[in-house]
Structures are given as structure tokens and as C-alpha cells.
Specification:
Structural class: alpha+beta
Order of helices and strands: HHEHEHHEEHEHHEEEEEEEEHHHHHHH
Mean pLDDT: 91
Helix content: 25-40%
Radius of gyration: 22 Å
Shape: globular
Amino acid sequence: MDRETFQTCCSLVKNHRPCYEKLCSSNLINYIEKKDFSYSKFFEKYVLPNYPCVFSGRYTEDWNSRKRWVTQEGKPNFQRLLQDFGDALVPVANCNAKEYNANPKKIIPFKEYIAYWKDYIQNGHSSPKGCLYLKDWHLHREFPKHNAYSTPVFFTSDWLNEYWDAIEVDDYRFVYMGPKGSWTPFHADVFHSYSWSANVCGRKKWLLYPPGQEDNLRDCHGNLVYDVTESILQDKRQFPRYDKSCQPLEIIQEAGEVIFVPSGWHHQVYNLEDTISINHNWVNSCNVDTMWQYLQRELAAVQSEISEWRDSMDNWHQHCQIMMKSCTGIDYKEFYMFLNIISKNRISFLQSFGGDTGSSRIQHPHDLSTLGPHHAVFDLNKVAQVLECVLSNEEFKKLDPDSLSPRPEDLLQKIKEATEKTPL
């Protein structure tokens, strides 16, 4: 990010008001064909305004997965996949079953799934076992030396995976494999994060609704609809606000193409052919405040659920945090540690950044050196804003923040000193 883009982005953060309804009514999705499209343009035109877009297959044509996992006819290469991953255990969902507004999953051997998939195709895309979809497979974590793909530069400011890589606990990088007809019910991504999804082979249909529209797709009890194509949505007694919803943005994603799904956009996805895709969830400076707002809503929901025990339960606030973490994967203290890791990496980068712009500088995680010092300052300024909100939050104050290391006030001071000292 250069100085001009940095200044433009700072202005847009304060003043931008996205017009999602116009985008959906036109049903026109921006398609990025040329490989000379810059990171700064993507940041300014899509990340900041939170608009979706599609990158052409040129951006994935060099991936090993597109060469090794796909036959000359453009179909999944089952023989090569079995050779590479046959003994792995993988999560598989049954698309024909509904469980808590999702599809129930089980863990099976990869070779068993491939045998099912081959039979499913031979039987005219039908099976008594139902339509099974391999979803949320942490292939990158399980096979770290398998160079299946490289993250496009547009998505490298990825705080979620930067944090979980640092603590070596988890990641939000997934592989999906499924036959024609497999699908994912209506949902928003974890923490209302961004996601990017690349089709290694096959085609997908996406139905996307901009933030806020999901409230029109809840039933009279407040539950989110499972399938946005269901006729029951027409029943005003069941779905009283459905007539206020906009039409979804419909996108057909071809083989090799990469879709950018903005933060908080609910979506439903279908595999139109036998399809393999690679998906990342990610958070950065532009939607970390959305993640914080999401966590506050989740905590409020937990507190409402167990409010009757508030006066009788010791450490009720701590119990609420535990329950929230079991549902979302993170609590308020870990969110603070997440901000701390992101800040430390950028402060360290800025401290190492001097007049030398050569390759001799210290290497930092997730291409900080590529994105540059302006981006690091932009990130730190946003962390400081969110951290100030966290510090003023009454629920956070009840968790003894002085016991955290470093103390939140000290981290905030370090961030301010680092940004003030950086000559840009």
C-alpha cells in the first residue's frame, strides 16, 4: 500500500456508506480478468466498501492443485487424490439431513469418501447414502509440505490465520470436495469474516445477501432460514419480513475462478458440477470491528439464555465467556490476545523498517514486507480504535484485564508510539 492509497483508505474508512441494494438490484458482479490488477485497487474498491468480486482463472492457473487434482477433461482426478491423501481422515456432511440449521458431519477415511463419490457419479449422481459433501478439511494444516496452492496477494492481510499460526492451535484454511448437487445452507462465515473461495475444478452457484438482509430472512421466532429457496418463506405468518428482503446477488463461479465474499454477507452455495474448492476465512483491519461487534452479540445471547442463574451462580460472567467460546471458538480474553499478536508483529516490522528496502530486512509473517509500512500503520491504527472499545466494555472490565500480559493500556501505548515514530 503506497502513501496515496493509505491516505485515501483512511478517508474512506471514516466516510464510506456502502449501497448494497443498488449492487444487488443490478446483479452485476465485477470480474477481474487482468493479472496486473493491484492490491491497492482491490483494497480500495472491494475490501473497504465490503463489495464482492470475482477473479479470473488466470490467478490460479499455476497452482499445483489445478495441475495434479484435475483430469484433462476438467474433472476431479480421483487416482491422484488417492495417491496424495488416501489415508487421511476427513469431515463429511450429509446434504440431505438437517441438524440445527446445518448438515450433520462425521469423520471417515478419505479413500472411503472417494469410493462413495465414484459410485455416486456412476449411479447418475444418486446414492442411498444421500448426497455427501467433504467440507472444512484442514488440508493445509495436515499436509503442510503439500504445495497445493498459494494465497493470492489480495488476501494475504489475514489476521485470523496469522494469529492461529502463531499459537499453533488451529487455522481457517479449508478444502471442499463434493459431487454435483452438494450444497451449503444459508449462513454467514465465522466471526462474520471475509472469505475467498477458489474452484480448483467444477462450478458453483452463489446466492449472496448483503449485511442486514438476513433479518428479513428470519422466522417469527428469530431463527435464520435454512434454505433461501424454500417456498415456506412466502408464508407471512412464519416469515413476516420476507417481503422486505432484496433479491440475492447470484454468481456462477467457473473452474479456476476465485470469489471474494465480503464480511457479514450471508450466502448459500451449490455445486453445479463435481467440484473441488479451496476456501479461507480471514479478518483484517477493515472488518476487525465487525468481529468485535459479533462477539458482543454472541455474549449477549449467552447471557440472555442463562440469565435466570445470574444471581445464584458464582463467577457467572466467567461462565458466560466459557459458553461463548464453546460456540464461537473465542472469548473476550482471547480476542485481546489476538489483537496483541497482530500488534506485536506490526510493531516489530515497523521497528525493523528503515532506509534499506532490500531483501536483507527481517522476514515477517504473512507478507508484511510485501504489503509495506503504510499498511502496517493502517492496521495498528485500527487495532488501537478497537482496543479502546474493548477497554471501555463493561463485560471486559469484569474479567480482570490487569492480569493480562501485556496490560491492555500498555499495549495501546506501544501502538501509539510505534505509529508516531514511523516516518511515512
